[in-house]
Amino acid sequence: MRDIIILECTEAKAEGKPASRYVTTRNKKSPRTPGRLEKKKYNPFLRRHTIHREVK
After folding, report:
1. Do the strands 48-55 and 21-27 form a parallel or antiparallel pair, or are they unpaired?
2. Beta bridge partners of 55
3. For residue 12, how far is the Cα from the chain centroid?
4. Is residue 45 within 8 Å of residue 21, measured between CB atoms?
5. How many distinct structural domains can be found in the chain?
6. Tens of pLDDT along 2-37?
7. Spatial distance between the Cα atoms of 36 and 43, rounded to a whole number of angstroms
8. Phi/psi at 26 (nearest 5 deg)?
9. What is the pLDDT of residue 46?
10. Pairing of the two strands 2-9 and 38-43
């Protein structure tokens, strides 16, 4: 069973720029991802890779 989740940039808000968002899926029953998912993704507004965290 896979859920659709949204990943949002954590560093863009601190710098006053728009946050980039990515849509992906994850296995909710997996023991490897018990909390919120975090991945390094490219933010085109900051022009670098930043940490993106799952939002509710």
Report:
1. unpaired
2. 6
3. 12
4. no
5. 1
6. 899 999 999 998 889 999 999 999 988 888 888 899
7. 19
8. -150, 155
9. 94
10. unpaired
> In this model, does residue 41 exceed pLDDT 90?
yes
**pLDDT at residue 14, rounded to an integer:** 87
Q: What is the DSSP letter of 55?
A: E
The structure's pTM equals 0.85
Q: Give me the domain span that covers residue 7.
A: 2-29+36-55
Rounded CA gap, 15 and 13, in Å?
5
The DSSP code sequence of 1-41 is -EEEEEEEESSHHHHTSPPPEEEEEEETT-TT--S--EEEE
Q: Name which of 4, 5, 8 is nearest 41 in CA terms.
A: 8
Residue 53 reports pLDDT greater than 90: yes
Q: Could you tell me the CATH number of the domain that includes residue 8? A: 2.20.28.120
